[in-house]
Amino acid sequence: EISQLSSAARKRKPVKIGATASELADLAFGAFIGLLREQGGAHATRQQASLGAQPHRVRQTAAARLVAMAEADPDRRAACLPVLIQALGDPIKEVRTATFESLQKLKLDAARLAAEAMESGVEDLGVAGLNLLTSGASAAEGRKVLEEAMLSRNDGLALRAAELLRDRADPIKTAAGALTAAYEKLRRQAIVWLASSDAEEARAGLRGALDSGGKGSREEAAVALAREKDPAAYDALVSLLKAETREAMQARFIAALSELGDARGAAALLDRLEPDPTGTARPNLLFQAIGGMRR
Question: What span, in angstroms and rounded, lies between the C-alpha atoms of 128 and 103?
Fold first, then answer.
């Protein structure tokens, strides 16, 4: 039966394709665009469950094919770029990376590509964008780009920019500058960096944080300075303790005052008891600390 079917197939005349080569290329181009845009719908979810990583490789291959077609036919480049830029936000890292590299192959302006990568909302691409901006710049220009990202961004990329800048510039000055960053987590990390150094410049940066930055930075700086027996911590700790209503944070500031060892500490703890308009003072913690100070 199979031999009969094969024989019959050989006798049939080849079917003529009605489309031209250009039209077929257009169809292929559209198909690759559709495959690259398949990011996370219900169909993609079902594909992932049954095919594992294969859909990711399909999208990576689609990106490569689009680049090849755009390089062979410059008229397709304009249609290809927006699709690739959109794919920078793909949820799969391998696809994002392939897309980023594809845009580099198509010679998208480096500044625009870096900006698109940094605005993608994905940290790995944001770092790639930062590296792209700094790779072709002079040392001074590269530091300026990183410093601007460190201070102005309000996401994890600010922290990554600071880490890159610490490798290229004075780490203590970088940490001190990060105290004024928009990103709160970076400001707290800057305190950690400064507190880990014995240099006087680092200590000066911590003192500066007592009067600048957010409340969280001020708290971390005061506790770090108390650990180093720096008298500058006293007024900040007293003020923080007086305003604090949470028991855990009160305990932290009380412990920091005890560690600081300032002679005025016992009186400051008594002052937290009275007046106490919010009724949130913790007498047991305060009296225990006062007793320890007077031994």
Answer: 13
State pLDDT tens for residues 18-36: 667 788 888 888 998 888 8
Q: What is the pTM of this model?
A: 0.74
pLDDT tens string 102-128: 999 999 998 899 999 998 888 899 999
As a whole number of angstroms, the distance between CA 127 and CA 109 comes to 17
Q: Is the separation of the CB atoms in 71 and 30 below 8 Å?
A: no
